[in-house]
Amino acid sequence: MISIDKKVKIIEGCAPDNIPDEVLSSSEPLIIKGLVSSWPIVKAGLSSRADVEKYLLQFYQGQQVAAFLGKQENAGRIFYNEDLTGFNYDTVSTKLDFALQQLSLHADNPSSPTIYIGSTSVDQYLPGFRAENDIALGEHNPLVSIWISNKCRIAAHWDSPLNIACSVVGHRRFTLFPFEQMENLYVGPLDKTPAGQAISLVDFYNPDFEKFPKFKHALPHAQVADLEPGDGLFIPSMWWHHVESLDSLNVLVNYWFKGTPAFFGKPINALFNSVLSIRDLPPELRAAWKMIFDYYIFDYQKENFAHIPEHAQGAIGDLTDDNARTIRARLLNELNR
Fold first, then answer.
1. Are 72 and 140 members of one domain?
2. Is the dihedral of CA 51, 96, 104, 194 positive or negative?
3. Does residue 111 sit in the same domain as residue 239?
4. How many domains does the chain fold into?
5. Which residue among 257, 286, 310 closes a domain?
6. pLDDT digits 0-9 by tens, 162-184
7. Is the pLDDT of residue 337 over 90?
8. In whole angstroms, what is the distance from residue 43 CA to residue 28 CA?
9. How far is CA 104 from CA 115, 203, 215, 224, in A?
10. What is the pTM of this model?
């Protein structure tokens, strides 16, 4: 495993129903020590594995969940196969109670296969759980997910929403990089990914510096966060994070939420559309479109459009729910041609 000297800053004294605005607006990751230590699921985890299973299953309605199953020789790494034509795990549909039984069955096996249930909607699969285990995010409407596994590791990736990850059972380690380290992380395919986001191809347990030499330049910018049961981690939007589950049973509950109005679109859609329409244009046309994007998007200055009456500015005016609908309808119409 790579050695990281810099530790993520720790803050204390935050309650689940009173997370300060300065935390939610931080530009750096923050460990929120003991944020959810009062949750019943955390107390169950400190008691026994059986108590965790019993606690979770009281909310479970019997639906099928998606699980990743990896061979023991993968040592918990959720990744691609050798030639990146597929993945090193199988995706299966199973029942949560059966998955928990399998995790328990392999609890004392040092060479256990990987069992990983990721990004499962708490509200859909465990209704009532949040009545006893929740954090308050004010006007934000978070997507709340649960992640259950034995020892495993998820390659470094980024998420567009803000994120509060709560380690509720077991221990987790996050290794984080600011987004500008992207070039040094050797990112894999954009559209064929283990879980929807492009990932770093570097094995953090055994980095190949001959194949990925620039990864050495990323390491001085890395920060590590070791989470105990009850700790939360605030991850700002777009920060790369590599995630390790360190125990034979790990449960994490995370909150994804936008720091922007709900009517904003997904930037990743613009990226894919740009691949389709701009990337392979002749260099002089790409340069022209770069200037256009800078003018209207990246270096947008409202005063540049003062010569146009506000009622006539349309897409270049203030973005509101109404004109967002108009823009979206136009895009859908164009993409469906």
1. yes
2. negative
3. yes
4. 2
5. 257
6. 999 999 999 999 999 999 999 99
7. no
8. 29
9. 11, 28, 37, 29
10. 0.93
In the chain, what is the straight-line distance between the N-terminal and C-terminal CA atoms, in Å? Answer: 50
State whether 174 and 32 are in the same domain: yes
What's the pLDDT score for residue 1?
75
* Position 14, amino acid: C
Residues 154 and 15 in one domain: yes
- Domain C-terminal end among 201, 222, 257: 257
How is residue 310 written in tokens?
Answer: 């506000």
Q: Tell me which residue range forms the domain holding 304.
A: 267-335
Q: Are residues 311 and 251 in the same domain?
A: no
